[in-house]
Write a structure and sequence with these properties.
227 residues, alpha/beta, Spore Coat Polysaccharide Biosynthesis Protein SpsA, Chain A, 7-stranded mixed sheet, two-stranded antiparallel sheet, 7 helices
């Protein structure tokens, strides 16, 4: 009998895939990537992670129907998204079973996520209550003038590019969203929501490229990385 590294865990994934792809000019999540759509690849990556027990995809019905056959080995559910990212995540949280203890929020446009990195992030959330995948800033950083001339160097020490999944005790994330609603605040990721209520989030360094598909060039790069 295979060993289960997460024997008592009930961690659902919420895939945020409700965006309109305005910057891309076409539906990037339906775009082909080495034989499968971007969103299909993202779903299959989360299905492959031992730590994920079920998945909610927050996306329009048309995008969902474009996925093709639904032969996934884990429970999968679709819900409509909201106007802002946090509204879409809240919609996903609302349909999770009461027995779910943790939730991993992941961008639908990150199809290269490694199952092992998902599991590492979930394991860290079990220990620290909140964890997020990220990568260290390695490039030279500059601050510019308002006219876009180089002005000064910025230290990259302790700076990170945020990625997903971002994993939390589900009660923590719900509390954070309730606080944001009460204050009328909007955030661009779930780590920012936790920071708003004073909860630190453990950063887990990604081991493989976890590219977010944003421009047409990203599709070519993702295809090259898959090869």
């Amino acid at each position: 009998m295979p060993h289960d590294p997460f024997p008592s865990l009930s961690c659902a994934a919420v895939i945020v895939a409700a965006g309109s792809s305005r910057r891309m000019g076409f539906d990037k999540l339906a775009a082909g990537l080495s034989g499968l759509s971007v969103l299909r690849r993202t779903i299959e990556a989360l299905v492959a992670a031992d730590s994920i027990t079920s998945i909610v995809v927050v996306c329009p019905q048309e995008r969902w129907e474009g996925l093709g056959r639904m032969d996934f080995s884990k429970p999968l559910l679709r819900v409509d998204g909201g106007r802002e990212r946090q509204d879409s995540v809240a919609a996903g949280l609302a349909v999770l079973d009461s027995g779910i203890t943790h939730v991993a929020v992941h961008d639908g446009a990150r199809p290269l996520i490694a199952a092992a990195d998902i599991d590492r992030c979930v394991a860290a959330a079990l220990e620290y209550r909140a964890a997020a995948l990220a990568r260290r800033v390695t490039e030279t950083l500059k601050r510019s003038t308002v006219e876009d001339f180089s002005a000064e160097a910025v230290s990259r020490e302790h700076l990170w590019f945020m990625e997903t999944p971002q994993v939390f005790e589900i009660a923590l994330l719900r509390d954070a969203y309730a606080a944001l609603t009460a204050r009328g605040l909007a955030v661009t990721d779930e780590v920012s929501a936790l920071e708003a209520i004073g909860i630190p989030v453990k950063l887990i360094e990604s081991t493989l490229p976890n590219l977010k598909i944003t421009t047409p060039a990203d599709l070519f790069l993702a295809a090259a990385l898959l090869k």
